Give the backbone structure.
Amino acid sequence: MPNDSTPLLDWSDPARAEAFEAWLDRIGERWNLDRTTLAPASADASFRRYFRVHGRMSNVATSFIVMDAAPPLEDTRPFVKVAGLLGQAGLHVPRVLEADFAAGFLLLSDLGREPYLQALAVATPSRADALVREALAALVQMQQRVTASALPPYDRALLNRELDLFPQWCVQRHFGIQWSPAETEAWARVCRLLVDSALAQPVVAVHRDWMPRNLMVTDPNPGVLDFQDAVAGPITYDTASLLRDAFLSWEEEREIDWAIRGWDMQRKAGLPVADDFAEHWRQLEWMGLQRHLKVLGIFCRLQHRDGKPAYAQDLPRFFGYASRVAMRYRELAPLLRLLAPMSGQAVAAGFTF
């Protein structure tokens, strides 16, 4: 049970609470952890939780982050592996100070309290531009220095499994729509186009959630979080994640300006992007569309399966992204007809770019 000196944290499983206390007992003295300072730091769409606790490192007062990732729902080993790869590449990531893989607890260095999402929401145009350029530069550094073959492949099977989330959780479960055989075939054709486009791109290390919520304003900037699902995949994926975010949107002129700057950085770094920016932009938009359809499914699943309804509030944003891309490319026009019964309601509910 929780130690008398430990604040009462929310543990639904008493055995888990007891394991946490035993782990703190083992590591606490090494880092002079003050249990009275333990407090929730953040949570995400997974089953992971994060706490902040104060202590000392090299006899200097500091704060740490504790990751609570209970097996078998979560596995901390990919986080530790990718943290090592990104750290070796010179990116600013949390240091893994303690790891108990069997119990699912990690002690990490703390990258601070200011996520990009918070900073960009109030930033002046010049400040936003500086932050996004630094994020693009760090992305190029990752693509240049992290060996993609050290990561799992973002292959056809995985891309299709992600797309399958949309009809299962968004179309059927959330909106109660059953597609006809013709509509199901139209969906399958669009999926083939998107997956073929993704697989035709050069392969690099892909963070898979390179977005303002997972980047921190730090020195050096940015700090990078939530990288445990990194894969070897399409070179445009992370740029699309950054520019068309789950919680923050930009005018298309700014998206294109930043995309051009990122593309130019990639070219100067010798990365194998398309020679023609128009083709690079098409690849980025189609890649982003695959991601947005996946996220629509995930956000609905979070509401209906995991009891996290807040994410569904951003469905209109993703319908907006998806509809805009489907309108722009003739090959994707069938998708627009599939989205219309859902996106019309969603956009009418109040989302505009």
The first helix runs from residue 14 to 27. The two ends are 49 Å apart (CA to CA). The first strand starts at residue 34 and ends at 43.
